[in-house]
Design goal:
Blueprint: E1 4-12, H1 17-30, E2 34-40, E3 49-57, E4 68-73, H2 76-82, E5 86-95, E6 108-112, H3 114-122, H4 128-139, H5 144-154, H6 160-180, E7 198-201, H7 202-212, E8 217-220, H8 227-236, E9 243-246, H9 250-262, E10 267-271, H10 273-289, E11 293-299, H11 316-321, E12 330-332, H12 337-354, E13 357-363, H13 364-368, E14 370-373, H14 437-448, H15 450-456, E15 464-468, E16 474-477, H16 483-495, E17 500-505, E18 507-509, H17 513-522, E19 525-530, H18 536-545, E20 550-553, H19 562-588
Parallel strand pairs: 1-4, 4-5, 5-6, 8-9, 8-10, 10-11, 11-13, 12-13, 16-17, 16-19, 19-20
Antiparallel strand pairs: 1-3, 2-3, 7-14, 12-18, 15-17
Helix pairs in contact: 1-4, 3-4, 3-6, 4-6, 7-8, 7-12, 9-10, 16-19
Amino acid sequence: MHPDLTLRIAGESGEGVITIGETLCKLAAREGLHLVTFRTFPAEIKGGACMIQLRLSEKNISYHGEKLDLLVCLNQEALDENITELKENGVLVCEAECDVPEENSRLTVYKVPFERIAVREIGSRISKNIVVLGTLCHLLGLPKLTIEKFLAEKFAKKSKAVLDHNLDALQRGLNFAQQHFTGHRSVQMPSPSGQRKLLMTGNEAIAFGAAAAGVKCFFGYPITPASEIMEWLAVHLPRLGGKVLQTEDEISAICCVAGASWAGARSMTSTSGPGLSLMSETIGLLTMAEIPAVIIDSQRGGPSTGMPTKTEQSDLFLALYGSHGDSPRVVMAPTSVTECFRMTGVAFDIAEKYQIPVIMLVDQALSARLETVEPHVARRTPAASRLRAEPESGGKYARYKLGGSVISPVALPGTEGGEHMVTGMEHDELGNFACDEETHTAMTVKRFRKLPAIESDPLAQNLSTRLGDPHAEIGIVTWGSSAGPVEEAIGRANEMGIAAQAIVPKILNPLPHQELREFFGNVNHVIVPELNFVGQFAALLRSTYRVPTISLTKIKGIPLTPGEIVQKIAEVAEIATARSKKRYGRAAG
């Protein structure tokens, strides 16, 4: 058995490529394997290149793998596009009509007439993906009974004829592999632990985390790649006593969040970059009126409509500064599916306690990523709530009281003696409009005092991760889903004899200043890998800490790879060594 296996299924959108991968994921999770996936698909409903990559392991992993052990191609285009990603001695399974370039002679190649078996023998082209699953059942050594049981569960609400049809397709794929794959190299699966794991996407984990954190109202408008959050909550939140409303647009969604939250309900929305742009004015209202809200932004590629189904980390500046005036808000960025669950709860706690909007940044790769989660992790109860006011009847209630704590007790609508004005205009302690310089200055300071208070709050502790050799001179600072390839790259660099260390802040406003200053004081070089063109996080670090940075950016719509990061680490190490030798030579002279 191998401790690790990376495989990719590639074809055309509409051929069931993703279904094959998701089925393998569910089977692996039931057996107790760890797994991480990455998928890419076109914006069109049908047609266009599509693939899903799985990495299965006996140990916990944070990246979907780089070079492939196994590649399954359903057409020539998929083969041409992906064959260079195979290891030299990898295994290729492809449609029988595909031409394999001669330079790939070291590969083990299995050609299977998927199309012919599906159309001529079964009579249904849509059965092709189940035929593929049958061949993989033999190649990977998967128990046939386990797959049959899974298919029976999957098609439980369908007729017996539908189930029998799919079982026939599975058997025919298995039969072909048994007859033609003899005497060749097989692909070995990692050893399963037998301890069943949860399997969910980043979007599902966010929705699940929101439910566990006590969300009562969700308002949203469908947008790729965030729609699954609303879809999950639409099914499950009403059973928990909550409400889900699909609004006519993102502006309506965030305004509904503001209203429901003002009334006392934990409320949230989810969107992508275009939607967050539309929400920016109301985010300013949430800040001014001190109304808590959780906003999920699943980032995608490019400005405007851009690349809806591709990944990027290019909304950081929008999340930090996207509103007119000085408008403090909290910005967070989980690094994994498990973190999506946990940090959604933290986002609600911070929003409610400090009466402030919290924006949580994920991206298409993390939103769509399937990942195993340990069952004990997915348990949570709300840890913080709003400080409630107990106003005296007949007195004047100071909703925005100055002095003392940064948190002003809030009286919900209907609270006796709690009458006050709620407005987006600058206001005094009672909420009445005030535009004099003293009031505006005092209220602005009050709103911004929340950020250092949040930074020192136990709720925001343990929201950064340290990786690698703490004595290394080469440092890496990254955020969000780029943490996975960074973690793997540091391990590879260490195997090459190059020491590196990293820090991954998961709260980006307020930044963990003490930890970052300590980190910068211990390294001589700072590499900042991220998925945007201008190096937004690197710019934030330079402007905040006056530290020189080395940007490693990528805007191809796919995640960074450990190999790309290792290459940058090696370049920096080589330059550092050359400078050290030059200084030593001068000193010796």
